[in-house]
Amino acid sequence: MKKLLFPIVLLLLGNTVNAQQDFFALAGKDSPRIEFSDIRAMNTDGSSGTQIFTSVSQSEVFSQNSRTKVAEDKTSYGNSQAMNLAALATDLSQENLIYMPMFSSNIYVLNQKTKQITLVENGVAKVTSCDINSHITRMTLGYDGAVYALNNAGTQLLQISKKNGQFSVLDLGIVKDAASNGKNSFTAMETGFGGDMISDAEGNLYVFAASGNVFKVSPKNLEAYFLGKISGLPENYSVNGAAVNSKGKIVVASAKGNALFEVNFESLEANQLAGETNLHIYDLASKYFLNDRKAVETTPIINAEIYPTRVDENFIYVNLNQTKIKGNIKVDIFDLSGKNVLSRKISVKDGNLNEKIELSNLSQGAYLVSIFDNSGKVIASKKVLKTK
Fold it and tell me: Can you count the helices (H) and strands (E) in the chain?
């Protein structure tokens, strides 16, 4: 269980993505200890794609705080190519990869195009090399566009956000066991440590522990609820990476030299992917979310549509087809705090409408789009995610 390490292992430690490649892996060398090899794109079938960054890549690291080049100590546990890298996430555009060394509070942002690395210094994360509880081992992109990182014991859930070109880090608090978890404790080493994390379209987080146990975590109440254990994995399989692929399925990977598996979230049954069978994967990352295809709608009417829900361009369409609505409608767009960020009044003729609404002035992230009739009644509402 490399990513979790446990005391025995602790003693040993003194390119552009093409259409087929839809998630990323933080890979390690074939070694009895954690030893970072590279960050690579992964194909849908579980085989390796393009290498993006390696342990020997020529890299320039710039401090976000001082905006100057950083002279790194390559023998330290906290440098950008440290052997103990074990947590990885991508932003919505997939242009940047965000990662952390397991024994350090440093956050690194790798630009895939320029290969430039930004060091995000922070005094929020409380990581020490000798405290296994504090090690950041789970990281994922959230539906709100922020990156979430969680340590082994759940004593720190970090939110890494970007605004006006600057990254900031917020400690959301301590994640505790739900009373119903019983022996399947989220905060116990054997049952809840290590692994990785994914998120869904409602803002929930899901931790896949190294043991194969799965927990649902709500950032609102900071409780972890045991959902079950993955079945169908080989004996002693250590779950060290988890991500949602472009099909909406969960993919898990191991640091111990195994194949990747696709997991059905409803049954938690795993089936081996056809790709490579001897990969050492410390973490997985993607821009996809669980249940993303299940649109969030309230009081919809027949033949009223808001699409697409995943906005890769800078516009959405509002479509009304053969409805009884006449006169004006209003389209309001709200951010996740409830602030109205865009409002449009549109005239409907003969109950039909197909209106393109520009979103170029909105930053990437999740929004709620609502259509109101001329009496102020909500006739359709849907959550959309702007990725660029």
Answer: 2, 30
Nearest residue to 281 (alpha-carbon basis) of 249, 243, 247: 243
Q: In this structure, are residues 108 and 119 in contact, taking their beta carbons and an 8 Å threshold?
A: yes
User: How do the pLDDT tens digits run along the chain, 388 residues long?
Assistant: 445 543 333 333 333 333 467 899 999 999 888 899 999 999 999 999 999 999 999 989 999 999 999 999 999 999 999 999 999 999 988 899 999 999 999 999 999 999 999 999 988 999 998 999 999 999 999 998 999 999 999 999 999 999 888 999 999 999 999 999 999 999 999 999 999 999 998 889 999 999 999 999 988 899 999 999 999 999 999 999 999 998 889 999 999 999 999 999 999 999 999 999 999 999 999 999 998 754 444 444 456 788 888 888 889 988 887 667 777 888 999 987 778 899 999 888 776 778 899 999 999 888 889 888 877 778 888 888 988 7
69 exposure class (CB count in 10 Å sphere: 0-12, 13-18, 19+):
exposed
Residue recorded with tokens 């649902």 = 216
Q: Considering only CA atoms, which of 118, 106, 142 is closest in space to residue 286? A: 142
Q: Catalogue the E-assigned strands of 36-174.
A: 36-43, 48-54, 61-63, 85-90, 96-101, 107-111, 117-120, 136-141, 147-151, 157-163, 166-171
Cα distance between residue 242 and residue 360, in whole Å: 32
Output the six-digit token pair for 10: 């602790």
Residue type (1 letter), 171: D
Torsion region of 74: left, alpha or beta (phi above 0 gives left; psi -120 to 50 gives alpha): alpha
Using DSSP's 3-state secondary structure scheme, residue 192 falls into helix
Hey, how many other C-beta atoms are within 10 angstroms of the C-beta on 261? Answer: 22
With CA atoms as reference, report the closest residue to 193 among 151, 227, 233.
Answer: 151
